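Q: Here's a chain of 384 amino acids. Please give me its 3D structure as tokens.
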Amino acid sequence: MERLAKLKRALVELFPERHLYVRSGGAMKAFVLTTRKQMLIAAGVAGGALWMGVSTAAMLVNLLSASAADREIAQLKAQSERYVADRQARLDSAMARLNAASGSSADLAAEIEKRHAALAMLLTDIKGAPGAAEALTPAINRALAAQDASPVRRVEMVRIGQEQLLEAADSFAKGRADRLRLAFRMAGLSPSSFTDRSGSLGGPLIDSKDPRALAAVLDVDEDFAVRIQRAARDLNESKQLANAAQDLPIGRPTASGAQTSGFGVRLDPFTRRPAYHSGLDFNGGHAQPIFATGPGVVSFTGQRSGYGNVVEIDHGRGLKTRYAHLSGFSVRPGQRVGVGQRIAAMGSTGRSTGTHLHYEVWVNGRAQNPSRFLKAGQYVQQEH
């Protein structure tokens, strides 16, 4: 109450009662401004000032945001205009050469022949790759569509067809390399450790660090040569990854049978306590065939504690697979096996509660989740 009384006295001192006298037409009028009225007027003025401040700040923020958006739009527009101008300049240059004298036409024909030779080197490497025919056939058909046109038109269409064919080859090579890199990452492997970054085109190595030197080797213009090299490098990497994928254990160890137990911690079937499970289990019938999931050399056949009868295969590059609880063997140590080759028969030997296959994948001495390799195998199969 004392504080309220002090506050009241302070307000009275700040807004003391004031008298206003207004003289109008010889008459005098008096107005009394009490403390309450003055407080209401002050509150109204303060509220109006606050509203004006907030509105001004909001307007400034909107103006700044609009300015940033306008700048971004202007940049995108400028990039688009530069791209269109560049394409138009190239088209004008090509048309100028087509409309020039016979000497210029001969030069253009020679340039087209040189481009054909460079494309032939690239397409020779692409030939036979899975999906190559489907990717390149539309571009080839478009290039051949104008065979009944005038000579000048045919030359123009051949040049355009070359550009489209190179674009299709470049996209195919890059897409295939990207898909194979993804497959290796799905298996938990680094794609770079399975590839050599040096590019090979038509046999000899070509260094793409100097575009002018590359253009001189291929005897074509610099831009076309760089695009050829980029496609060749992606194709070279995809071929190396495809070859390496053929050596990986990414196949299925059984032709049928569902997965009954996964990789990692699970309840042990004997102790009923959580325990680490270092592989996958597949169910099946007694003596059902077991197959190698990848090519390699049989490094061990025999018994191991807890595993019963075991076959182990060394696939190189630190990769090893183990097949356990077998009822019999179909291979011997030192024997080279191929992917899908029968190596054993399913059983229930060792620490086992029933007929099944226990399958493990090891990388550099550490057990890995075999499911990742199986998924990678399914993804690679889509390439074919």
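Q: Can you summarize the key feature?
A: The CA atoms of residues 5 and 317 lie 89 Å apart.
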